[in-house]
Design brief:
Layout (H helix, E strand, L loop, with lengths): L5 H17 L1 H22 L7 E6 L10 H4 L4 E6 L2 H9 L5 E4 L4 E5 L3 H10 L7 E5 L6 H32 L1 H6 L5 H31 L7 H23 L5 H18 L11 H7 L3 H15 L7 H21 L4
Parallel strand pairs: 1-2, 1-3, 4-5
Antiparallel strand pairs: 3-4
């Protein structure tokens, strides 16, 4: 095997960049689509008021007191099992939970600025006499604030999987890879150029889209922009490497399109793009942890909405990095020019 040549890598890198930038439709779609989605939901849900109450239960219903059973049996209230008390209190501050009950220690939390919390406290009535009231305060997290990381993650997913996987399959079908094989360019140089080219383009487009929509909408940001950018890099690398596996051997664009859709559709549904999986089945939540987009969305939302640091989201980061290494190794092993 010949040594890696920086000159050959740069040549392949520049060629891929030019190919993408000349495709004005693809460039426009990567920029316009997330902007339209974010702005659309910002307009549609800014004044949304739901009649569904969300109440967190710390320690679960096992510790339920008999005098609270009437409240716990109330219809139209969603009771959610909570394992992390401090995270749940933060959600009450952000209006993501309307009330939090700690049944074991006989106390409850409401946000003193939340109308939903006020109503729930009135519904609790005399049944809550045995509970000690705790109050917190904080501004509500708009749906668009919660939605934004998922939309950006979805856009990254499509740009990574289809941008790398689909294009390499097209190269193979059109005979481009066969001709490249006759050049001194090695498979490692070619794949690395594809990854780096797609990576910087996605980072640039996502940064510009975020800055533009943030200027108009004004997203909540409690964490570090540097931490958010590093999560963006890790998530993009993971999704690009996943796309390389699809492109490693396939020569049929139709088959590649089917497999890519088979991968992207579950991630759009189960990775928390449009809605939270809190309160869903345990099986669905466990399956979602196998999807890289889930870890990107969770880490990005934790940084933006909860002020989390890289240490706090280290589990998501290590998972993304591990998936990247596995996918890259598998793609390099499986790759064929023809």
């Amino acid at each position: 095997m010949s040594n890696i040549s920086l000159k050959r890598f740069i040549a392949a890198f520049i060629a891929r960049n030019r190919e993408f930038l000349r495709d004005r439709t693809a460039v426009s779609w990567n920029i316009v689509m997330p902007v339209l989605i974010v702005m659309g939901f910002a307009f549609a849900f800014t004044t949304d008021s739901s009649d569904l109450f969300k109440v967190g239960l710390y320690e679960g219903k096992v510790q339920s007191k008999p005098q609270l059973q009437h409240f716990l049996d109330t219809d139209h209230i969603q009771f959610i099992e909570i394992s992390d008390l401090q995270t749940a209190i933060t959600k009450v501050e952000r209006h993501q939970l309307d009330m939090l009950l700690d049944l074991k220690r006989s106390r409850y939390w409401i946000n003193q600025t939340s109308s939903e919390g006020y109503i729930l406290e009135r519904m609790l009535g005399n049944d809550g006499g045995a509970l000690k009231k705790q109050t917190v305060s904080g501004d509500a997290i708009r749906y668009v604030d919660w939605l934004a990381p998922g939309v950006f993650g979805m856009n990254i997913m499509f740009a990574s999987l289809f941008g790398v996987g689909y294009s390499i399959v097209r190269y193979r079908k059109n005979g481009v890879l066969k001709r490249l094989r006759a050049t001194p360019l090695t498979a490692l140089e070619f794949l690395t150029a594809q990854v780096v080219s797609r990576l910087w383009l996605i980072l640039l487009v996502t940064t510009l889209v975020y800055a533009g929509t943030n200027y108009i909408v004004g997203f909540r940001m409690y964490g570090s922009y540097l931490d958010l950018f590093l999560v963006l890099v890790a998530g993009t690398m993971c999704l690009i490497s996943l796309g390389l596996i699809i492109a490693a051997r396939m020569s049929s664009e139709e088959a590649a399109n089917g497999i890519l859709n088979l991968i992207t559709i579950p991630m759009m549904i189960l990775s928390g793009v449009w809605f939270s999986l809190e309160g869903s089945s345990t099986l669905a939540q466990k399956f979602a942890l196998l999807l890289p987009l889930t870890h990107f969305n969770d880490a990005a939302r934790a940084i933006m909405l909860d002020g989390a640091t890289l240490v706090d989201v280290s589990g998501n980061l290590f998972t993304l990095i591990g998936m990247t290494l596995v996918c890259m190794a598998a793609a390099a092993y499986m790759f064929r020019w023809e």
